[in-house]
Amino acid sequence: MELGTLLEASCQLQQNQALQMIKGDLMWRLVFLLPMLVHSTVSVAEEKVVKVFVLAGQSNMEGQGVVDLDHPQHYNGGKGTLIWSMENGKTKAKMKHLKDDSGKWKSRKDVWVRYQTPHELKVGNLGIGFAVYPGKHHIGPELQIGHLLGDCFDEPVLMIKTCWGGKSLYKDFRPPSAGGETGQFYQKMVDDVRNVMANAGEEMPALKGAKLELAGFFWFQGWNDMFDEKARNEYAKNLVHLIDDFRRTFHVPDLSVVIGETGNMGSEAGQNMFAIRDAQAKAAASIKPRGSAAFVSTTEFARPKELSPNVGHGHHWFGNAESYFLIGDAMGSAMVRLLSSPHAQGAE
Predict the structure, then answer these.
(1) What are phi and psi of 261, to 5 degrees?
(2) CA pair distance 184, 199, nearest whole angstrom
(3) Between 20 and 30 A from 320 (CA), which of 59, 142, 186, 266?
(4) pLDDT tens digit sequence for 127-171
(5) What is the residue extent of each domain of the chain?
(6) What is the pTM of this model?
(7) CB burial of residue 38 (10 Å; 0-12, 13-18, 19+)
(8) d(CA 35, CA 37)
């Protein structure tokens, strides 16, 4: 064999040996790194993010809308209940999604509700019954709010209801920045939210290990502040303080906020209620950063007592379920708009 041929064969042999060494080294590296890469990918894929919303206020956020009670004397024969409204209400077409094809009330596995009432802990998938009373005979704004938020997100949604009847912003929900004694129910609201954010998986095993992300705050309150001049005069600034303090406590400076109008009695309300309504709108316009809060008018959702189940409960919208559904629809829609706005996307 000629010398040139021998040299060429030797070079080829060395190249093949080098290539085999490189392949072997790469194989060992892959064997070592692949489990780490797979574990990292799986961890990211398995990390569940849950969008959390707080629903705060007094009795009308607790939920007074009657679902199915129809006693002739106590519930006006069922007029204005949810069942009646789905057949006779002005906006019955908007409510069709509340029942399935078999006529049963729907529940949503992608939306959770957690509500510690004075009587019991209510926790589970969104449906009827997450109101202040035992059983499933009442609703609040949470029902339609939850449907809209569930439709808005690919991620699961958790709504935390922190509401107590007969409580004022001036005293009971008084935030620290307002000065004076911090309200017992402001602190209770904060404690409830903090507890759920830390321990949601204990009460809702499906959310165990999930990352909870505080995404929005709903406020529906005002009745008790109507009857005190100082409370009316301070309402706007106290509500701004409440939002600022809540955001600061949970380190969410741009948290989206929806304020529902105290719209009971519609346009026939007295001057004190008009003062509270004006203060609620003023607060929403004053909250910074601009565009992070919305005021929702609700007066048009008032229904006559003659077509409602609780004819003596004007402070509770006469228990009219269509009213509570529409309040939730308006407040939920406002939150969805805020969440899709430049402020929520981090734009300046």
Answers:
(1) -70, 145
(2) 22
(3) 186
(4) 999 999 999 999 999 999 999 999 999 999 999 999 999 999 999
(5) 1-46, 48-339
(6) 0.87
(7) exposed
(8) 5
**Total residue count of the chain as it appears in this document:** 348
Query: Given pLDDT bands bounded at 50, 70 and 90, which one contains residue 47?
Result: confident
Instruction: Report the Cα 291 to chain-centroid distance in Å.
Output: 18
Res. 43: pLDDT tops 60: no
pLDDT of amino acid 341? 83
Structure tokens at 165: 């009847």
Helix/strand/coil percentages in the chain, nearest 5: 50, 15, 35
Class of domain 48-339: alpha beta
Q: Which two tokens stand for residue 222?
A: 């005002």
145, with CB counted inside 10 A (0-12, 13-18, 19+), is buried
- Backbone torsions φ then ψ of 84, nearest 5 degrees: -65, -45
Q: Which of 255, 256, 49 has the alpha carbon at shortest distance from 155? A: 49
